[in-house]
User: What shape does this take?
Amino acid sequence: WFPLGARQLGAMMVEMGTRTRRFMGSRPCRKVLPLVLGRGTRPGNTCRRLNCALSNRSGDDQGPERPKQTPGGSTTTRRRESRREAGGGGIDRDHGGMAADVGIEALVEEAAEVNQSLSRQGDKGAQGRGPGRVRGRGRSRNRREARSGQAIRANVSEVLRAKIKKAKTSDKVWGILLRHERNMSVSLVCLAAVRLRRLSKRERRNTSDNGRVRSRGERVLVSLVRRRLPSMNTKHVATILHSMAALRLSVDDGDLAASLIDRFVLLVDGANGQAIGNMVWACGKLGRFPDKESLERILRRLLSVSGECNSQNFSNTLWALGTMAEQGRGDVVSDPTLELLLSCYVCKLSESVPQGMSNVLWALARLGYEPGGDVVQRIVRELLSRPRDQMKPQDLANALWSLGRLRCDVGVEDLAALASSSVEMIETFNPQELSLTLWGLARTDPSLLHDDGYARILRAVVAKCHTFNAQALSTTLWAVGKIGRVPPPDHMYSLTEAVLTRLGRFTPQGLSNVLWAMTSLSYSPGPVALREISAEVSRKARRIPGKSLASIMKSFALLQYTPADAAMRGINDAFLMQLPDCAPQSLCLLLWSYASQGQSPGTRVLDELHARCWELLPECTVPQQANQLWCYATLSYDPGQDFVTELSSRFASSLDEASPQSIANLVWAVASLGYALGNVQEAALVMEILRRCQRSEFSGQELTNLVWALAVMGAGGDGFSDVWG
Assistant: This one.
């Protein structure tokens, strides 16, 4: 430094002083500066004296020196005294350049000596800790490296990577994201997302204990993903989407998931099977899907790398496709592509876990795809071959529900084994699994259930029915009604109480299922319960389809319950609003419910219903024609001569399709309304009645009604005499 001029040296020292003041409060500076400038100096005096030296000013101008602490004095004091003895009493203001250079050189030399001694002490301490204290040695090394700040800046990625991997709670990871947002690269963001996903599985609750930290961390994570998106590859995108779906992160602001999906589709030609499986699975969880063309492109890439894929990649993909179909996205994928995916999965079936098999069956049921051959039976047999401890209740419930919906040819022995496995674990099933199991058994083959197994399932249902939601209750009751075995009264009472507790949450279809099950089991819950159910039906009548309204009214009639006038008006008005879209079956059911209850809805309602019946008369079947006329006669409503003549002519031309009850009802209704049949129609009906009488197809009541009606209409001839005989 001595060859430098005073002006250049001063500028250099000012820069050194600026850097030194930045670390003035740090631990290394608190150790070094007192040793350089004297141990008796305070931090304020230390800064002033150092500034004096760096600014070419004498330290004597700042005040008297502090007394020496030891007889020999400090190293700095001895050097200052030796310099004064050699060159005079102090630094000359006019010729102080060289003197200042000598003082600065002494300071720098002393600082270097102290730093070296501290480094040696740190190395000795690290060596003395032994191999068992590796963590302490690393901490000392990091502290020494932190004095310069260069090592941390160079190794920031490795340090953050180690911190993320060592984090034991999700709050730690969220904190790292918040503190080091600027230093997070793409790989670190993906690592943090994966670590958060794994920690969320270990923790009992899905959310962090500190909700504020989690919410702030989520915002930072979403912001990082947006900024790093242009530098992501397919693996990064799949990892981020998979973690977002597993953590249930909020993506309500919209275009983040869409941007990630577009980025993946853009780079899909370089994606492997695991990335595709994870990405499509995440789309199913998040409810965000690529368009049909992009999806076909992704699936083609998956099929092209099928040799490198495992069974989970295909099962996740098929599950996501089933989720898309569940959300009503139309034709999700073409049948040839679906067949290829299923074939690739079956080839790796032995590698699959029970959850993957049940997910594939569930996806096929949702997609409505029934594969040919014995594909479904192979999957079921592979599922049953696994140890019981590997199967979860959800796997068995989904498998039974899927088989009930697919209606594929599965061996009776396999179905019986699946039902037996479910019964053995039935106490561990949750409400949804119980309802799905019963529904699947009702749809496949209820005879597979023995009485003991059925009773065991019902006991499990009753024990947990207070935790069922409305959908599970309606599904369970429908399945019980479909099976046809009447449960004990206390079981039905418990189920009815659960229904009344959640009555406001039932969908229109759910209310219809509950009433249908009660009528199938010939179980009446009582007028109080039926009154509450009818009031709920009236409140939701405008949202209930006409077909469901007619079915509900039929159930009320079979249970011999007449709703209150207010409820009846609401139901009638709602049905009339949907009258242009009603089918003949719905009209017949509604008219039959009125006639069975013996309560007329009024002339206005009947006139509108009759006008629609006249329009739909060509579409009505033979039983529906007979039922319409019987209902009019029972309700004392005159449809007119033209309608009776037209309906009788159509009925007489299709007598081969008519049942004995339909013939008896039509003839009785015509006579009750005061009309007569034409000669041709009468002759055809009398001959048909005579043939069926000879085969003894009519019951006593039906035969009595026929004879009475023919006598009232004035029928005569040999045919009538034979019928009378």
In short: Residues 23-50, 53-77, 83-104, 124-154 have pLDDT under 50 and may be disordered.
